[in-house]
Hints:
By secondary structure, the protein is α+β, with helices and mostly antiparallel strands. It has 20 helices and 20 strands. The N and C termini lie far apart (81 Å).
Amino acid sequence: MKDFSILRIRLLSITILCVALxxxxxxxxxxxVRSQEYRDRADRQYVRPNQSxxxxxxxxxxxxxxxxxxxxxxESGFTLAINPxxxxxxxxxxxxxxxxxxxxxxxxLVKAGKKTDPYEELxxxxxxxxxxxxxxxxxxxxxxxxxxxxxxxxxxxxxxVLGFLSFKGTDLKAQYGLxxxxxxxxxxxxxxxxxxxxxxxxxxxxxxxLKKEDLEGSIVTTIDPIVQGTLEKKIADLQTQYKSKxxxxxIMNPKTGEIYAMGSxxxxxxxxxxxxxxxxxxxxxxxxNVYEMGSIIKPLTMAAGIDAGVVTPExxxxxxxxxxxxxxxxxxxxxxxxxxVNMQEVLSQSLNTGVAFVVSKxxxxxxxxxxxxxxxxxxxxxxxPNEADSLVKNLKSPREIEYATASFGQGIALSPIxxxxxxxSLGNGGLLVTPHVVKxxxxxxxxxxxxxxxxxxxxxxxxxSTTITKMLVTVFDKALLNGKIKMEHYSMAAKTGTAxxxxxxxxxxxxxYLHSFFGYFPAYDPKFIVFLFTVxxxxxxxxxxxxxxxxxxxxxxxxxxYQVPPDR
Length: 568
């Protein structure tokens, strides 16, 4: 009997505990998770019947100190509308409203004149204070309705990464960037009833178990707004200075693939995208476009030869200044021969004939396999929409000339992010990482999870990475602008590229070029890889003259901002 009483007490205690947990979870849902929804209900006098107030998750930037900055959020205010049936003096009503919120008089009178229409909108996105002042006038037939809309506090900052929302007919659609890529998570089903909080807590975020609303949330990016702003300012200055068609850049952690900044010019403001004349700026050319990159591909070719054991930095060849293959001839950039030179000089002097020599030692098949190994024939898997396919069919050609030209970045076209990913493997120990801009998802049910990406794939031996890095440090210290931008206490591995631009008819334009530059540092334990490019800059011939000093400026900023200790 005594044991039965103890059992009853235990069962009662467990029941009370379960009820308490149920109440706690319910309070949590009401006060924390769904607090905004209940605030909206409290404002129901300002909400139109049968219409919910717009809601959407936030996109955050993160500073180096882990401070979160809203990149895409919600702005609150009102929609101003009238019921023409209830307005008796159109001019009087117009003048009262216009004194607070300027309106187009003709437009107002047309709408007020529709006396059989019970609802006409005058203005959307009316600020709170303005809306409340109009409401306080108590004008018959004038109404304000609670409104929320997407707002980008940084205006143009990282706009091509963020994307925007726009109407397609009567539906609001996510367009471009993270808004589109993560729309399923950012969008809201405001009428949905949340599932139990503990289902989310103890599940593995399995979409087959959870409802759609359980997967709604906000996203935290890897973008640092300070770094992003610095990159965009430098890009815009380059675009203006050289009157280029397009200028862009990426700053990434070569070991993890985290992107701290990505942008291009011209850009746009997602708050006012409707006024943009150049809608091509909405896309992200760093991900969606492909280009022949030129000589920044040479280190990939050289690393392949070193990794395969067919050349070393000391290997020599005789440079005649040109090579003829399959009845086609290509030259060094200045059409001059250097005689007998070693592989270090091939990179330092950017000799096309030198990397073609490396391919001849490798063989076409091995060269192709290394290029494929760098990921040049596949998408990077970056978490942004519309990633472009590369154009590398020349790597399957039966002709030697196609492999030779590919060795110095002509005849194959890559996206900038694909190029950055491949080049990062030179400095990070020979690993192919997945570039990405989102690191965490914060769900409405109150938990968060870090986003996982594929494990890096080895494409080069670690010792090859060290060797090619040493060669690129020599390029930066001695060859680039004759050592003008060498940093005494920081090792930099870098290379420029000046590529001819195809005319679309099997030939190249005479005087138009694409300039590119990449560098990573500290060279032997890199925290950053910086990539810059500009299309058809005017009045300057080589990338060393357009991009070397801007790279140096960005590197100095990153060193100071992140307090990177010297490595030499």
